[in-house]
Design goal:
Order of helices and strands: EHHEHHHH
Number of helices: 6
Radius of gyration: 19 Å
Helix content: 55-70%
Strand order of the largest sheet: 1-2
Distance between the termini: 25 Å
Structural class: mainly alpha
Largest sheet: 2 strands, antiparallel
Strand content: 5-15%
Length: about 190
């Protein structure tokens, strides 16, 4: 029945500069938006059929909370990096040899918009870190470690949405085996309860 669900969306123009963020967008954004859409539709169906509504609401909020937490972490790190740049007299002027990724993202829900915002913030933070590295304020190893950590944190939302969507698919099919609980437990999902 998921294949017949209509998906209203709007398009948001985006421009991403860093190769890691562009790659992340290409690999994960559409799949994550689809999983979020699946979660939204599954919750509507399951609320009326199989699962207590408060479990659905808490599970739905889990994906949003995961994305919001990473956004706040990026904001904090960006503030620290920007102050370091300001105190060192460094303007954010790093450029990349590759062309920016310019496209239109399909926004299927407010959580998709939050996830796109996370990618924009990560892109901006990497630009500041690279500017600091190019000016000799940050060592290459330190800048690379921060960028790699950021790449890992950008995957929290997609991972959480995927695992929750898998758990909801199993609930929708009436499967309540241990594998559903394991998939939900790895995200801390309340649907495993």
């Amino acid at each position: 029945w998921f294949t017949n669900v209509q998906a209203p969306y709007f398009e948001q123009s985006i421009e991403l500069l860093n190769a890691k963020v562009k790659s992340h967008y290409v690999r994960f954004f559409d799949a994550t938006s689809t999983n979020i859409h699946l979660i939204e539709n599954a919750t509507a169906l399951l609320q009326s059929e199989q699962v207590r509504p408060e479990l659905i609401e808490r599970s739905w909020a889990q994906v949003e909370t995961a994305i919001d937490a990473v956004c706040k972490e990026i904001d904090t790190n960006a503030e620290v990096a920007s102050k370091l740049a300001e105190n060192s007299g460094v303007r954010v002027e790093a450029k990349f040899f590759q062309e920016p990724l310019r496209t239109k993202a399909k926004i299927l829900s407010p959580i998709s918009m939050g996830y796109l915002e996370l990618l924009h913030k990560a892109d901006g933070l990497i630009l500041v870190l690279e500017s600091l590295r190019l000016r000799g304020i940050l060592k290459r190893a330190d800048a690379d470690r921060q960028v790699n950590y950021l790449g890992h944190r950008m995957k929290v939302g997609p991972r959480c949405a995927f695992q929750l969507a898998v758990g909801l698919r199993k609930l929708a099919k009436g499967e309540t085996s241990g594998s559903s609980s394991e998939a939900s437990a790895s995200t801390g999902s309340t649907l495993a309860d």
